[in-house]
Design goal:
heterodimer; A: mainly beta; 6-stranded mixed β-sheet; B: mainly beta; 4-stranded antiparallel β-sheet; 11 strands; globular
């Protein structure tokens, strides 16, 4: 069954530094993969999605993610983080018509 | 355009009390979902409704009931609240039924429930 794992519970980076958040998915025919962001006290907002085609996906707020079938990964990247990127990030996939989430990665930004 | 609206935003209950969380969407979406969010657990699906008139259990349905009142509304009921149900609850909806964009979920702002 399709599922996702986020190995990092908490990551701290300095403002202006690059960011990579990891997401590994279990084997599936054609995974539908998503990254959502949750700002403190807010609901979840879609950053980007991958269904098929180009393996490098651009999202909102300057984020991108790359689907790598050989590594079963869908890592989220941003070249230069801003203090406003501090939030919790969730990788997700569809399994039996239901959206299944990873455990989440909390991102802290140091000034 | 309001999107997904949840009420109430905050609620404190005593063990054994009952309550209903309300959810409404104005995007004409077919599918609706209830998730709970607990620290370190991500979001776990409680119940979902693939279309009006249908409901199905998710990963953690015990202690909850749902009603898909019409296409817009999907309520979550706790019949006898327990401290283990202290959580933040999120309602979501999606178009589903076809098209690559149909699987994207739109979330409400969440309802924080505390059971004493």
């Amino acid at each position: 069954a399709q599922s996702v794992t986020q190995p990092d519970i908490h990551i701290t980076v300095s403002e202006g530094a690059s960011l990579e958040l990891r997401c590994n998915y279990s084997y599936g025919a054609t995974p539908y993969l998503f990254w959502y962001v949750q700002s403190p006290g807010q609901g979840l907002q879609l950053l980007l999605k991958y269904f098929s085609g180009d393996t490098l996906v651009q999202g909102i707020k300057g984020f991108e993610a790359e689907f790598k079938r050989s590594q079963s990964s869908f890592n989220l990247r941003k070249p230069s983080v801003h203090w406003s990127d501090a939030a919790e990030y969730f990788c997700a996939t569809f399994r039996a018509q239901k959206l299944v989430f990873g455990q989440g990665t909390r991102l802290t930004i140091n000034p | 355009n309001a999107g997904v609206t949840q009420t109430p935003k905050f609620q404190v209950l005593k063990t054994g009390q009952s309550m209903t969380l309300q959810c409404a969407q104005d995007m004409n979406h077919n599918s609706m979902y209830w998730y709970r969010q607990d620290p370190g657990m991500g979001l776990r699906l409680i119940y979902y409704s693939a279309s009006e008139g249908t409901t199905d259990k998710g990963e953690v349905p015990n202690g909850y009931n749902v009603s898909r009142l019409n296409k817009r509304e999907f309520s979550l009921r706790l019949e006898s609240a327990a401290p283990s149900q202290t959580s933040v609850y999120f309602c979501a909806s999606s178009e589903m039924g076809g098209g690559v964009g149909a699987n994207v979920l739109t979330f409400g702002a969440g309802s924080r429930l505390t059971v004493l």
